[in-house]
Amino acid sequence: MPHTLSRIGRRRALRGAAAAFVALGVLLWWLAPWSEEPPGGTITLSTGTRAGVYQKYGELLRSSLDKYMPDLEVRLKTSDGSQENVRRVATGQADFAIAAADAVQTYKLEGRPGADRLRGVARLYDDYVQLAVAPDSGIRTVDDLRGKRVAIGPPKSGVRLIANRVLKAAGIDPEIDISPSADGIDTGPGRLGHGLDAFFWSGGLPTDGLKKFTEQSALRFVPIEADLVAELHREGGATRYYRATNMPESAYPGSQLGATVPTMAVSNLLITRADADPRLTEWLTRIVLRSRDGIGAHVHSAQLVDVRTAIYTDPLRLHEGARRYYRSDKP
């Protein structure tokens, strides 16, 4: 019996040693990249409006970069949104930016300056289209927007791109059939019932600027039904990046009364140019993924950033530096 117990003890000890060896190997593998001297310099990150998710995400990412890349200066540059961000990166006015996939593809299809130089770094999270009205509004469907005062977002925003497409898919001419306004997330909610009948927004859930508003004032969200998304898909081109989905009841609890809202979503990408430094881009990609939980604690939608999905940056090819990171990392 003692001899048998001794053999069992040895086997357990060997298994324990093997497990410890594997754990040590994983730890060393995880820490290895941080043992390198991080690159420095100055980069410009184009974000979005001050009350939107892009800006908040950019601020938190800059904090992470300051921690792991202390010699890198990150300059944040606010913008109208996706359309402006894509143009800035393509033309060299920014080094990195966040932009929705439909805006990226639209820029490419139109053959705009520098489109062929655009590259993907990571797929981040999805934007949800949010069409908001006052609780007592008679607007129940997109069709009901005809003849109304509707905020469709700033001219260079991704919101404007999406709002115009949704309206046209419903048979509404944005220039003739509504009274359009350029209000964004910063001013749109407060003008409901005071110059606006409805406003479009496209952003991660929940959008902080909208969440704060709903904590003090009520809103109602108008559904964007799946048949409207199907109509957009029939148009082809950049509209293939839209997908039918539901805004969960937990997004804005006080405004959804425990109900989901049919809508559509589009993925957001972190983008750069082909001439961006590969080593710097590799480090930046690594920090985007490693900082997911820290950023996600403040930007809920960022919790969905994952190495297994981040690699899919369609319609852009991966930047060489980002590709190096994904090849070296393990999900």
What this model shows, in words?
This protein has 331 residues and is α/β, with parallel strands linked by helices. It is built from 13 helices and ten strands. Strands 1, 2, 3, 4, 5, 6, 7, 8, 9 and 10 form a ten-stranded mixed β-sheet that branches. The longest helix has 30 residues. The N terminus is likely disordered.
N-to-C series of helices and strands: HEHEHEHEEHEHEHEHEHEHHHH
The class by helix and strand makeup works out as alpha/beta
Cα gyration radius (Å): 23 Å
Largest sheet, strands/sense/barrel: 10 strands, mixed
In terms of quaternary structure, the protein is single chain
Low-confidence stretches: 1-5, 18-32
User: What is the count of helical runs?
Assistant: 13
Let me know the number of strands: 10
Whole-number mean pLDDT:
89
> How big a fraction of the residues is strand?
15-25%
**What overall form do the CA principal axes indicate?**
globular
Distance between the termini: 45 Å
Helicity level, as a percent range?
Answer: 25-40%
Using brief descriptors, characterize the structure shown:
ten-stranded mixed β-sheet; single chain; 10 strands; 331 residues; alpha/beta; 13 helices; disordered N terminus; globular
